[in-house]
Design brief:
Blueprint: E1 5-13, E2 17-26, E3 31-35, H1 42-49, E4 57-62, E5 65-66, H2 72-78, E6 79-83, H3 94-100, H4 114-126, H5 142-155, E7 160-164, H6 172-189, E8 192-196, H7 200-203, E9 209-214, E10 217-222, H8 223-229, H9 231-234, E11 249-251, H10 254-267, E12 276-279, E13 284-288, E14 291-295, H11 298-314
This protein binds adenosine-5'-triphosphate (ATP).
The site of adenosine-5'-triphosphate has 10 residues, from helix 1.
Length: 315
């Protein structure tokens, strides 16, 4: 069976390559989560899949056809895109926006036929947006606005939907709502969903596959397997807010590791990479090449580290 999206030996970028040697695929009914640091090439990859960027090498096949051989309209029949930074058209209602999804099927000026109207009513219902059908977009909550943009993608009726950061700017409850909506679309309507996210820790619970851009390569596979085989993904350093803080090695279950990281990051503007903390259920081991002791509380660990750093500064 051929994969709906197939990428072979692909290099993407501009004058210089950003990511090379990409070999991967996704099938209808799957949810793929695209992650990677800022500026690493996520949007560039999305644009390449949409045929908007010249490929530096290799190929992208959509339903067996090379992307370069499809014209704009043929691509729109296969792929709908939801950009999170989309401009909100002034004076548009929710129904107007969703109706725009039908545009690709008509010439410049069009009027919706009865079947289209029925379909849009059905999309509004499915997205729980019926009560807002005549509301201006500018009056919607962020969560409902995001749903309206997804509604436009659904009206386009393409089997593949790509979303750039669909959960950014949403509160936790709306994030979960959008993520389950995306998963339901894949599972109940056999859509292929590929979305990028900075909230990937949450998003991974809803994704079948992870596509992770790192060191100019794409690491891809079943979400859980990618995380298991790349310990740095489960290291909390990915949530580093404090530029001059470098965490010690923390050997502990995920939650304890995350909490210890969070506590140290708030309390130290320092490089702690010389130290290692090991969780032993009832206490924590703290050691470096010259030191070893154990502690029961976070505060004891903080005091010990402060003392050790002080001593080191004097020496
Ligand atoms: N049209 C362009 N010409 C040249 N370089 C570009 C162009 N567009 C983007 N870049 C550069 O390519 C790199 C990757 O950008 P891209 O937008 O793909 O990253 P990203 O992973 O989506 O980042 P973010 O998470 O911040 O959105 C950046 O260094 C960016 O400056």
């Amino acid at each position: 069976m051929s994969k709906f999206l197939e990428i072979k030996q692909l290099t993407i970028g501009y004058s210089n390559p950003l990511v090379s040697g990409i070999d991967s695929s996704l099938e209808l009914g799957e949810v793929g989560l695209l992650i990677g640091n800022n500026g690493i090439g996520k949007t560039t990859l999305i644009k390449s899949i949409l045929g908007q960027n010249k490929l530096l090498n290799g190929e992208i096949l959509i339903n067996g056809k090379a992307i370069q051989e499809l014209d704009e309209n043929q691509i729109a029949q296969q792929i709908a895109i939801v950009f999170s930074k989309a401009e909100i058209p002034d004076n548009y209602t929710v129904t107007d926006l969703i109706s725009l999804g039908k545009y690709i099927h008509y010439p410049y000026y069009f009027q919706l036929n009865e079947a289209d109207k029925k379909e849009i009513t059905e999309i509004l219902r499915k997205l729980n947006l019926s009560e807002f059908e005549n509301k201006k977009l500018t009056e919607l909550s962020d969560g409902n606005l995001q749903k309206a943009f997804i509604g436009r993608a659904l009206a386009q009726n393409s089997p593949f939907i790509i979303l750039d950061e669909p959960t950014t700017h949403l509160d936790e409850e709306n994030k979960l709502m959008i993520l389950s909506l995306l998963r339901n679309l894949a599972k109940n309507e056999n859509k292929l969903i590929l979305f990028s996210s900075h909230d990937w820790r949450l998003a991974k619970e809803f994704a079948d596959k992870i596509w992770w851009i790192k060191d100019q390569k794409l690491i891809s596979g079943i979400a859980e397997e990618v995380i298991l085989s790349h310990p740095e993904l489960s290291q909390p350093t990915i949530l580093n807010f404090n530029q001059s803080f470098f965490p010690p090695m923390i050997d502990a279950p995920e939650l304890e590791k995350e909490m210890m990281f969070s506590y140290l990051q708030k309390n130290f503007d320092k490089d702690l990479r010389k130290f290692k903390l090991t969780f032993k259920n009832d206490f924590w081991d703290l050691n470096s090449d010259k030191f070893y002791d154990n502690y029961h509380t976070f505060q004891e660990i903080k005091q010990a580290l402060e003392k050790l750093l002080d001593t080191r500064d004097i020496n």
